[in-house]
Amino acid sequence: MNSLGTKVAIPATLGGITSVQVSGWYPDVTDTSQLQQTPSAGHVWDAIDATLCAGAKGSQTGADEQDFSALLSNGSSAGVSIGASGSQFGGPLAALSELGSNLSSLSPGQCDRGWVAFSVPQGVSVTGIQFSATTAGFTTPNAVVKWAVPQG
Predict the structure, then answer these.
(1) Nearest to residue 106, comparing CAs of 152, 66, 55?
(2) Strand pairing category for 126-133 and 143-148
(3) Is 50:22 a contact under the CB 8 Å cutoff?
(4) How many CA atoms lie within 13 A of 105 on its CB side?
(5) What is the per-residue pLDDT across 41-100, written as a single tens digit (0 to 9) for each?
(6) Cα–Cα–Cα angle for 56, 59, 62, nearest 5°?
(7) Would you state the pLDDT for residue 133?
(8) What domains lie within the chain, and their CATH numbers?
(9) Quick one: pLDDT at residue 103?
(10) Torsion sign (Cα): 60, 51, 138, 58
(11) CB distance 95 to 113 below 8 Å
(12) Is the model's pTM score more than 0.70?
């Protein structure tokens, strides 16, 4: 697994993404928007600060937060929390918007940075973050990258 902050080059995905980075992980984040959305009962929101960059041909679809999942201590995984869509978070995430919400496409070499929130069952810890995307080539395996989440 990679350390948080590591930028990883990947084979071009179907969406044209060629590098991905998870810069930070933030447990138990709270929505500070006027709508005050909350996680479903028995869950908390954990979030990451992620960056996806397009390759030399750009990306017509742009960044897709659905390519991320949180790996959990109980052996399962948590997908992206759709309930957090449009939310705002305090602290280091306050200056970011949801990954993929700013652009519908990326120019060659352009990057999109934003937060991705996961709905995590209470009492279960996140051990890693996984990025999985389908590559553009039939003979190239899917791009799968993992980052370790520090425990403590």
Answers:
(1) 55
(2) antiparallel
(3) yes
(4) 6
(5) 999 999 999 999 999 999 988 889 999 999 999 999 998 987 777 788 999 999 999 998
(6) 140
(7) 93
(8) 7-148 (2.60.40.1240)
(9) 67
(10) positive
(11) no
(12) yes
